[in-house]
Amino acid sequence: MNNSRSFLVFAWVGLVSVPALAQPAESSLKVFNYTYSYTTAGGASVTRTIPTKAYIPAPGTYNPLVPLPVVMYLHGSGERGNGIDIDGNPGIDSWAFADSLQLIDRPAIYVAPRGIKDFLPSDAEYLENQARWGSTAPINYGYDGLGEYWLNNYGTSDEYDYRNFPISASLRGAFSLTDTLLTSPTFTNLVDSTPFSIPLVDPNRQYLVGWSSGGDGVWDAVTRQPHKYAAAIPVSGVGDPGALGSHLVPGLLSQPLRAFAGGNDLPDQQSALLKMQTALGSAGAIGTAQLIPGENHFSVSNSVFGDINNRNWLYSQSEEVAVAAPEPTTVALCLLGILPFCRRRKA
Questions:
Q1: N or C: which end of the chain has fewer CB within 10 A?
Q2: Is the residue at 325 inside a domain?
Q3: pTM more than 0.85
Q4: Which residues, listed in sequence order, are joined to residue 290 by a DSSP beta bridge?
Q5: Measured between alpha carbons, how far is 331 from 326 in angstroms, rounded to an integer?
């Protein structure tokens, strides 16, 4: 895989060095509401809003002319719910990243959308799910009192068939946010009511990671839209083995992916990982799945995201995607007669 975007070679090409496991300053935390619209599986038009948190590298820690990679983190089921929670620890938020803050060891944009909490009984999508599943509904049609799961089949099995479940409203929001970030939009920071802009995003280096219920969401995302993300790391998540076999999703075979669960994880998480490990191997897919000995459900993500080999692997992946136009800065500089100095950027 490669990156088709070209950039000018400056004397200062690389990113400014950042200490390993450096946590962002509290001022780097941005909180905003993201609104998106779509058509449900049953044809209803809906508009929803999800609270989202982002960590933006501080000025001077990266080259502003080089688009940044994006890491999107899908939280576990215990972090569902509307509202904004800032727990007072500098640079750390209880639901935005938890232990996956260990991924912050180099300049990048880190984004954590929060799953939808409330679906009224009159909600069109809720009614569709109710009609679809009837008495066989998984956990109240994919929701409970805390909110919606990233995967509507949450908690019912150690595997599922993605064709039998519509994409969750929350995961639709994550997909939409991914697309919107490519336009470098401006949002309002709800912490201090000031506007802020997302730096330039590298469309070829967007990554998706998640733990527990978020791991389910990562599996569902790459199954439904392979290669939307350059790389993915689902941790303690449930996937669809048939997507690599009986109802093959061809793009999943070449999706860069590392899946993990703890050797002492919850029984469903262990068996789910082993089923996906078998499916990946049988299909000849490039993705891998691994049980980490000694780790339990609540320690395994620390082990995964704290491993420099996993972080280096994640950031080295680059997926060529369709881009409407290169950055204006790149075009202008190349037109000045220095086209020979433009080159492909290495991951």
A1: N
A2: yes
A3: no
A4: 260
A5: 7
**Cα dihedral 170/104/238/168 (nearest 10):** 10
- The residues near 58 (Cβ < 8 Å, ≥ 6 apart) are 24, 25, 27, 28
Count of domains observed in the chain = 1
Token pair belonging to 21: 């496991």
Find, among 34, 90, 310, 85, the residue nearest to 302 by Cα: 310
Residue 8 lies in a domain: no
Q: Could you tell me whether strands 258-264 and 6-8 are parallel, antiparallel, or unpaired per DSSP bridges?
A: unpaired
Q: In b/e form, how buried is each residue of 125-163, taking b as 16+ CB within 10 angstroms?
A: bbbbbeebbeeeebeebbbeeebbbbbbbbebebbbebe
Q: Which two tokens stand for residue 345?
A: 């950027």
Rounded Cα distance between 216 and 270, Å, is 13
Q: How many other CB atoms are there within 10 angstroms of residue 69's CB atom?
A: 22
Using CA atoms, how far apart are residues 131 and 309, in angstroms rounded to an integer?
46
Q: How many whole angstroms separate alpha carbon 160 and alpha carbon 148?
A: 17
CB 207 within 8 A of CB 317: yes
**Range scoring the smallest mean pLDDT among 16-20, 130-134, 267-271:** 16-20
Q: What length does the chain have?
A: 347
Residue 44 has pLDDT above 60, yes or no: yes
Q: Domain of residue 256: give its range.
A: 22-344
Query: Are the beta carbons of 83 and 72 closer than 8 angstroms?
Result: no
The Cα–Cα gap between 217 and 152 comes to 9
Rounded Cα–Cα distance for residues 68 and 64 (Å): 8
State the CATH number of the domain containing residue 183.
Answer: 3.40.50.1820
Q: 11 lies in a domain?
A: no
Strand partners, 264: 296
**pLDDT tens by residue, 49-83:** 888 888 888 888 889 899 999 999 998 887 776 55
Residues 122, 85: Cα–Cα separation, whole Å: 28
Would 3 be classed as within a structural domain? no
Q: Alpha-carbon distance 202 to 54, whole Å?
A: 16
